Amino acid sequence: MDTYSEFKWYADQLAEVARWAYRNGWAPGTSTNYSMRLPCKAAPALCVITSSGVDKETIDSNHVLTVDCHGQPLGEENLTPSAETALHLMLYRATEAGAVLHTHSLAATLLSRTAQSQGHLTISGWELLKGLEGVTSHQNEVSLPIFSNSQDMEGLATLIEPRLVAAPRCYGFLLSGHGLYVWGKDIWAAKRHLEVFEFLLQCEREVRSYGNATSPR
Amino acid sequence: MDTYSEFKWYADQLAEVARWAYRNGWAPGTSTNYSMRLPCKAAPALCVITSSGVDKETIDSNHVLTVDCHGQPLGEENLTPSAETALHLMLYRATEAGAVLHTHSLAATLLSRTAQSQGHLTISGWELLKGLEGVTSHQNEVSLPIFSNSQDMEGLATLIEPRLVAAPRCYGFLLSGHGLYVWGKDIWAAKRHLEVFEFLLQCEREVRSYGNATSPR
Amino acid sequence: MDTYSEFKWYADQLAEVARWAYRNGWAPGTSTNYSMRLPCKAAPALCVITSSGVDKETIDSNHVLTVDCHGQPLGEENLTPSAETALHLMLYRATEAGAVLHTHSLAATLLSRTAQSQGHLTISGWELLKGLEGVTSHQNEVSLPIFSNSQDMEGLATLIEPRLVAAPRCYGFLLSGHGLYVWGKDIWAAKRHLEVFEFLLQCEREVRSYGNATSPR
Amino acid sequence: MDTYSEFKWYADQLAEVARWAYRNGWAPGTSTNYSMRLPCKAAPALCVITSSGVDKETIDSNHVLTVDCHGQPLGEENLTPSAETALHLMLYRATEAGAVLHTHSLAATLLSRTAQSQGHLTISGWELLKGLEGVTSHQNEVSLPIFSNSQDMEGLATLIEPRLVAAPRCYGFLLSGHGLYVWGKDIWAAKRHLEVFEFLLQCEREVRSYGNATSPR
């Protein structure tokens, strides 16, 4: 990247979103990770990403590092990239994501297990769906794939990548018992997508528990 | 309007209520919109209204514009009025509302679908009903009509308007899977009505899920 | 009362507790009211009490007034005492309360209706009961009477008073569909009792909804 | 301990964690208690611990005292150590804990009663388990023993101690109707363990209420 101040700008944006996720209760116990794709001119740097094991209540730009397309750290910060870096890199390959946010909310964690046998969560009939890029009506259907959790991140990435390439209006997936991955064309779109999905997951969790939502009209 | 400072006062009030709604969790993902009727002397300006697609966590008076009774922007701000402006204008025609607030809380969104087949939500037996203008006893019945959602705002407005004209003590309605509209004689009454309805919707949501509230006495 | 500064101290304490209750979500839509008994030397002033219809998010000592044992305002503030002043006065007659707090939480409002037919809520088996004055074991039973709501406050006071005189370890009651009254020997005890009851009401609400708590041991 | 400033450092850390627990809603009504083991050179002082009956919203280092291995206060602060000091001392004997945190969240209090007959809560299949020291996969099983509550703290300690000695990856237990004890090698690990357990208890509470989580994979 050209200058330190440019890196600092990315790292500050990312840390701010991470602290916001913590305040919302979506990042307990040093869990969750966040990244932003860098412009081409920054190559071989591919993205900035949060380092492993940091408390998101107080994370700042000192806990953010740059990695290349193999997940190798490029800076001199002596930080370890998130253990889930492979999933972020996969998303930058498979989609046009400008930012990737991975959170552990209660609703996402629960639904990822209770709906796991269906393989995906289909969401429709909610006006807030229009907060997702390219969705123009509450009647559109959005699908959130659900994958089994694993500690083998490279293996998971290999499994998930073909499912996402060319999937229309797909901005997220669930890992069972683990949490939610969302992305967007830039950090603001990704943040909005996260807020939209978290709200919709709360809606779906309650509808599926009590079982009496009417069909969307 | 006479002066910039008067417009600024309205815009500041409106933005403050919008940020308050966000803090309460009722305005996720750039959703929701808010307006205040202007005094007659401001004609042809009818109301100030929030612009489209703004994050309500950080909205300020720069994201508020004035429109006439056809929803046409009047200022030089180069802002797009909310996509739901037609519903606000309809409410200023059909009622004496001084302010209109449209939010997306979890309780409103859920009940608007689970109770949709009944066409309305009848609320009674709760002391907090007295927070609504003109309600003097917990035994009064307040009805919240529920309408099917639509992306055709002009069509929705035409459908809803005759239902509201002359409805006694009606300060809100639900759009199915979408959210809640409330109003009041001024911004403070509208804000109080919003807080009252949000509380009562939480009560109703829980009573209807567990099904064992006794009749009001 | 002797001096303005002494009144100000009481009024500040009361307003601070009211704002705290609002932050906890227990005082929506200008509802709820609060009072503190004054020392004997302040006679004929009996207590300070919040005025009617004030938003508790921003209440301060300017919204607090003194009343005598008939509920007549004594100061020059030109404020109207809370519509429920008669219940506060009754509690100062029937008990040794130094402060009375009346709130509208979701748990209190819901349980006051769902358990109304039993006439009271008996709470036992929770360690937090020891937060109530004189309760020394989680095995003690605490009873929270539930009364039908009414708009006739004098009538309600007459009905409730004989039930409270000499009731051991009784620091609160519920009004059906309305909310919770709690008291304590001073404002700090009353505040602690409120926090304890609100927590226990949440426990009871969930146990009674899902129905599988074992007996206390 | 060598110096006042060293004691102050421990007391400040402890009070900060206590206020954080309060903000999370895990410390209502002056309940809960917290301690940190002191280094060997501080003998006969064993740990710093919060004093009895303090409001955790505003607790500071003035409400923290040092005790020896019999729970006797060593400083000149004239404070009474927490009524549950015996359980903290037992944990410092039975485990290598560097800090012990005891909280009263809604989820912990409820599950401690609803699952009491099983004698323990077995937690598995959640990625967040990896936030516990030594847990490397979501497929690991973590057991949280549940003990009957008692007002005899010495008796409780005698009952619990043999169950914990040599229990692998055990960082907490529940007291029925009372709350959660957690610990860790230092205050930061204990705090992370608390946040992890509170999240997992919320997951388990919901899964057990609605009953349809699939098995972990």
Number of helices of chain A: 5
Strand content of chain A: 15-25%
**Protein structure class of chain A:** alpha+beta
Instruction: Profile the largest sheet of chain A.
Output: 8 strands, mixed
Oligomer: homotetramer
The run of helices and strands of chain A is HEEEHEHEEHEEH
Shape of chain A: globular
How many β-strand runs of chain A? 8
What is the rounded distance between the termini of chain A?
A: 50 Å
Low-confidence stretches of chain A: 211-217
Averaging pLDDT over every residue of chain A, what do you get? 92
Widest sheet, order of strands of chain A: 3-2-1-4-8-7-6-5
The Cα radius of gyration of chain A reads 17 Å
Helix content of chain A: 25-40%
Task: Please give a structural write-up.
4 copies of one chain form a homotetramer. Chain A is of the alpha+beta class. Chain A is built from 5 helices and 8 strands; from the N terminus they run αβββαβαββαββα. Chain A starts with a helix and ends in a 7-residue tail after the last helix. The C terminus of chain A is likely disordered. Chains in contact: A-B, A-D, B-C, C-D. At the A-B interface, helix 5 of A face helix 3 of B.
Concise structural overview:
The structure is a homotetramer of 217-residue chains. With 217 residues, chain A is α+β, with helices and mostly antiparallel strands.
